[in-house]
User: What shape does this take?
Amino acid sequence: MKKKDKKKEEKQESSKDDAVVEANPEVVEKGKKIKEDLEKVMDEIDDVLEENAEEFVKNYVQKGGE
Amino acid sequence: MKNRIFGLETEYGLIFTPHGKVYLPMEKILGYVFEGLIPNSWPSNAFLSNGARFYQDTGCHPEYATPECDQVFDTIVHDKAGERLLERCLPVAQKRLQEEGLSGDIYIYKNNTDSMGNTYGCHENYLMRRDVDFWKVTEQLIPFFVTRQIYTGAGKVLKIAGKSHFFISQRSQHIHEKTSSSTTSSRSIINTRDEPHADAEKYRRLHIIVGDSNMSEYASYLKVGITAIILAMIEDRFFLEGVELDDPVKAMREVSRDLTLKKRIRLEKGKEMSAIEIQRRYLEKAKEYLSFSEEDPISQDIVDRWEYILDGLEEDPSRLDRELDWVAKKGLIHSYMDKKGCGLDDPRIAMMDLQYHDINQDRGLYYMLDRAGLIERVATEKDIEEAIENPPQTTRAKTRGDFIRFAKAKNRSYTVDWTYLKLNGYWEETILCMDPFSSENQRVNELIAAADAQK
Assistant: This one.
């Protein structure tokens, strides 16, 4: 419950005036880190996509289950 | 949380892509996969020493049914254990292919749809009291199941009239009825199949086929946990009124298509509410219910997470990309589109939509996100390892596991099902175990004790 109230407070604060609220360096740092991590995942994705992705997906046919 | 038996049955998609032109029948591939699990034989239905069941489902899918669990957490962990067990079969199956001079890759997907619009499911099982009017159960559950996809959906890129769209759920477009007994045609929101594998006078087994398979443990935990709380409320006749839907099947599809989550659904009495609003009504009722019950940390934890998720969905769904499958998948696809400058129609996106569900942890996109620390886990790998070897210790699954271990050690042929254990051949003996809440069976204990004494 406390968590929720805190969230509400933050929201009210930021809606007062976005420009005045200074960016929390911790949050910015965290955001940057997530972006970097995601960037790494992006580089990995191409390795697992087949050259002929279209063909691959088209061939993915299952008999209905259950 | 109320005493209850849970189980998940997950059907997996299977494909072999040959490097040459030799295609193999799927039966053969599935045979190789099973060889990795049960060497030297190929039974299409096998119980394992962790109490779970592996078998070949209609349509040539590998299917894993968790053992009977009496905790939501255990259910999620055992479902993941099934994933890992199948993953372990892959290298063995690949090797068998090579031995036959064939080269190619086997993919196993934990999703619910193929490229032709066929579907296969993730079935949830909840043991519940028989003495509740089933019509009431249905009435109480339908609006809940129609709207819970906003956090249980696994996301799907689907082409409609030549144009790709992102849907919240894999399964919602395949549901055609409110209630039905079928699982293969006219799939329904409430499936009426009822094989309790227990005292049928006391219990029914609610068999739910409407949900998506989840990669995310968090989403899976919410799916089973919240449903369990709703069922407890129904059993205690703590009913929610005023959310009956005008056309639940249509609403199911509409909710899946509405990424804003703001669209309003028509209710029976002409009112309208959004999926989030309907979920909030259930949440408020659940909180009220819990406030009347004894302190229950597990239910409280589930309700807290539920509220956190609904708040997030209301403010900005993209905030929940660590917790929910559809949000994680959508975020990843959009980052990829930005980077490559491609659209949702790009074939690579269609393949990403599949690869998110690849159970091979080296190739699966969900697992790439997890490795990068971008997924909120509920269980640890150690929990999952434990579940691969051991049944839950407080249900019938323990007896089954003990029995299978015993028969294997004694080299005795055996036949096992959910409610009985049988030693085959001369001195044949069938042991009935009708109570899923009972983890001890006198006869099994005697057999094991006699075998130990001989050592």
About this structure: The interface with chain B takes residues 3-4, 7, 11, 34, 37-38, 40-42, 44-45, 48-50, 53-54, 56-66 of chain A (CB under 8 Å). Residues 21-59 of chain A form one domain. The radius of gyration of chain A is 22 Å. Confidence is low (pLDDT under 50) at residues 1-18 of chain A.
